[in-house]
Specification:
With 233 residues, the protein is of the alpha+beta class. Helix content is 18%, strand content 38%. The protein contains three helices and eleven strands. It has helices at residues 2-29, 202-207, 225-231, and strands at residues 32-34, 40-42, 70-84, 89-98, 103-106, 119-136, 153-154, 158-168, 178-183, 188-191, 210-222. Strands 3, 4, 5, 6, 7, 8, 9, 10 and 11 form a nine-stranded antiparallel β-sheet that branches. It has a two-stranded antiparallel sheet with strand order 1-2. The longest helix is centred in the N-terminal third of the chain and has 28 residues, at 2-29. The chain is elongated. The N and C termini lie far apart (117 Å).
Amino acid sequence: MTNNLIYILILLLCFSCTCNSKKTIQNTTNNEISTPTGKKIKIPNKDSVPTNLESKQNSDLYGKETNQNTRIKAKVISIEERLIMPSDYLTTAMTVKTIENKTLVFLDMSGFEKLIDKEITIEYNLVPSSKLLLCFDCSSYSEEIDLYDITSFHSEIEFKELQLMKYVEDNWITPASTFEMIDKNGKTELFNSNDNDMILDSIKMKSFFFKYGIITKIHPELENRAELEQMIE
């Protein structure tokens, strides 16, 4: 009799555990887990869990050509002494026109005069250099952008909120004067400008953050000079 009673109690206990297990499984499919005290804890759905899969792509102002070597056929148009402004640098400049009808100028090319009117292969890299302030307190710019440096291209125009910290004047060449600017994150950068009248607003420029139109100058850097030197030996 006692053995039968114990057997019945064991069966009832097993049945109770099985029911509780089914309830827990059912609640879990509804994104809930029941604790032993009966409290329900909500678990997040895998679709609602935040992930870090988003990646910011680098925005290259100059396209894929920048910082990548380009090898292309070109015709040498001229090799002559040129004054490079605003650095006031006298050098021998080689001007070429590529098969894509791009005009490129390379510096320090004295001794390469034998290549004039010849088709050569050039390998070059476009390198970003100084930045120019185009306009002050502006959000658009439609004027033609003139660069004094004959070797340079320019990037697309971007607009940044900046404040003038210091102006360092060049006594001889106004475009060589330097604007030290700070952005709202505390980062300082140096700029030049082809707008000779911009500094007339220096007091206002120092007073607050204003929006400026900016370009980055880009110049070609010859990579296969040694190869060209073999052509003139």
